[in-house]
C-alpha cells in the first residue's frame, strides 16, 4: 500500500533559511519507504529582496504579485534558479535523488492568464502528472518551482500554494503539507494555533479577517484539496524539527500545525493509511 502513497510538500519562501536538516532526512526516509514525494516551492520573500535591489515595485492584489514582463523575468530567475537548486542540493546531501524543474518543464503546469490586471499570473488549467510519474519511476524526487506555461509557450508566475494544491489534486495525493513559518493557522488572538479546521471554518475566518495575506492562498488550496479527495491536508510549522513525521502521525499532539479536514471530520481519528505511511517513514 505504501508504494502507492503520494505526499506533496510545499515549502514557503519564508522558510528557506530556517528549514531544519531533519526535513531532508525525512524526505529520504519516505523515498526509501516507497512513498512518492513531490516538493513544490515558492520564494516570495527572496523575490521581494531582489525586486528592491532592482527598484522593481512589489505590488500584490489579494496576495498575488502583479507580474509584468520585468517582474516575470526576476521571478523565473529566483524561483527556477538559486532556490530550486539549493533545495535539490540539500536533498541530494541527505541521500535523496532529486531533480529541479519548474511547471514550465515538459508543460508540467498548463495555465491561462488569471486576470489581465495581474499581468503574467497563471491560473492552473492542467497538471501533466505523467511527468511526475516518469520522474518517480526513475527514483527522483521532483522539486518544482511554481511557474506555468500556456498553450502559446508564454510563461506565468503562479502562487506556490495554489501550484502545490493543483499538483496534489491532480496526483490524487494522500497528503498535502503546506509548510510555512508559523505554527499553523492562528486563532483570533494571534497566539494559539487551531488544531483542526473545516472548509466552512476557513470561509468564516477569512470573512472575519483572522486569516489574512499569505495564509489565504494556503487555506484556499487546502479547502480545494479536501473537497477533491486529498485525505490529509496540513498547514505545518516548517521550522520544527521532524515536522513531516509529525504531520503524518496519527497523534495530533505531535503535530506542529493545523489539519484541514472535511466537514463532519473535526473529531475523527486520522486516516489509517496515512498513519501507515508515517510508520513506514520511521
Ligand atoms: N490566521 C493566521 N494564522 C497564521 N498566519 C497568518 C494568519 N493570517 C495571516 N497570516 C500570515 O501568513 C503568513 C504565511 O504566509 P506567507 O508569508 O505567504 O508564507 P510562505 O512564504 O510560507 O508561503 C504568516 O507568516 C502570517 O504572517
Ligand atoms: C502570483 C504570485 O504571487 N506568485 C508568487 C510565487 C512565489 C510564492 O508563492 O512564494 P511563497 O510560497 O513564498 O509565498 C510570488 O511572486 O511571490
TrEMBL record:
Site (Transition state stabilizer): 10, 218
Pathway entry: Amino-acid biosynthesis; L-arginine biosynthesis; N(2)-acetyl-L-ornithine from L-glutamate: step 2/4
The entry's keywords: Amino-acid biosynthesis, Arginine biosynthesis, ATP-binding, Cytoplasm, Kinase, Nucleotide-binding, Transferase
Any Gene Ontology CC annotation: cytoplasm
InterPro entries with a match to the protein in the record: AceGlu_kinase-like_sf, AcgluKinase_fam, ArgB, Asp/Glu/Uridylate_kinase, Glu/AcGlu_kinase
EC number(s) recorded for this UniProt protein: 2.7.2.8
UniProt cross-references to SUPFAM superfamilies, sorted A to Z: Carbamate kinase-like
Main subcellular location: cytoplasm
Aspartate/glutamate/uridylate kinase domain residues: 6-237
Gene3D superfamilies: Acetylglutamate kinase-like (3.40.1160.10)
Pfam families referenced in this protein's UniProt entry, alphabetically: AA_kinase
Catalytic activity, reaction form: N-acetyl-L-glutamate + ATP = N-acetyl-L-glutamyl 5-phosphate + ADP
GO molecular function, one term: ATP binding
PANTHER family cross-referenced by the UniProt entry: N-ACETYLGLUTAMATE SYNTHASE (PTHR23342), N-ACETYLGLUTAMATE SYNTHASE, MITOCHONDRIAL (PTHR23342:SF0)
Family assignment from sequence similarity: Belongs to the acetylglutamate kinase family. ArgB subfamily.
Free-text function comment from the UniProt entry: Catalyzes the ATP-dependent phosphorylation of N-acetyl-L-glutamate.
Protein's UniProt name: Acetylglutamate kinase
Organism: Novibacillus thermophilus
Name of the gene this protein is made from: argB
Amino acid at each position: 500500500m505504501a508504494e502507492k502513497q503520494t505526499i506533496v510538500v510545499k515549502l514557503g519562501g519564508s522558510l528557506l533559511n530556517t528549514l531544519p536538516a531533519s526535513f531532508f532526512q525525512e524526505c529520504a526516509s519516505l523515498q526509501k519507504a516507497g512513498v512518492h514525494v513531490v516538493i513544490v516551492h515558492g520564494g516570495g520573500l527572496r523575490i521581494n529582496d531582489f525586486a528592491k535591489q532592482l527598484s522593481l515595485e512589489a505590488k500584490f492584489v489579494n496576495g498575488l504579485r502583479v507580474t509584468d514582463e520585468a517582474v516575470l523575468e526576476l521571478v523565473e530567475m529566483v524561483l527556477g534558479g538559486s532556490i530550486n537548486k539549493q533545495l535539490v542540493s540539500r536533498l541530494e546531501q541527505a541521500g535523496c535523488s532529486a531533480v529541479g524543474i519548474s511547471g514550465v518543464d515538459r508543460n508540467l503546469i498548463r495555465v491561462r492568464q488569471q486576470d489581465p490586471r495581474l499581468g503574467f499570473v497563471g491560473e492552473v488549467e492542467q497538471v501533466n502528472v505523467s511527468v511526475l510519474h516518469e520522474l518517480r519511476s526513475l527514483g527522483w524526487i521532483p522539486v518544482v518551482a511554481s511557474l506555468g506555461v500556456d498553450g502559446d509557450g508564454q510563461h506565468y508566475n503562479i502562487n506556490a500554494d495554489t501550484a502545490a494544491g493543483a499538483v496534489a489534486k491532480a496526483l490524487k495525493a494522500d497528503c498535502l503539507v503546506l509548510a510555512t513559518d508559523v505554527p499553523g493557522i492562528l486563532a483570533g488572538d494571534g497566539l494559539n494555533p487551531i488544531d483542526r479546521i473545516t472548509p466552512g471554518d476557513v470561509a468564516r475566518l477569512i470573512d472575519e479577517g483572522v486569516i489574512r495575506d499569505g495564509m489565504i492562498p494556503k487555506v484556499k488550496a487546502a479547502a480545494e484539496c479536501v473537497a477533491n479527495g486529498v485525505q490529509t491536508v496540513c498547514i505545518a510549522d516548517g521550522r520544527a524539527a521532524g515536522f513531516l513525521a509529525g504531520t503524518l502521525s496519527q497523534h495530533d499532539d505531535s503535530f506542529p500545525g493545523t489539519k484541514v479536514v472535511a466537514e463532519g471530520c473535526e473529531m475523527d481519528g486520522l486516516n489509517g493509511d496515512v498513519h501507515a505511511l508515517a510508520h513506514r517513514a520511521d
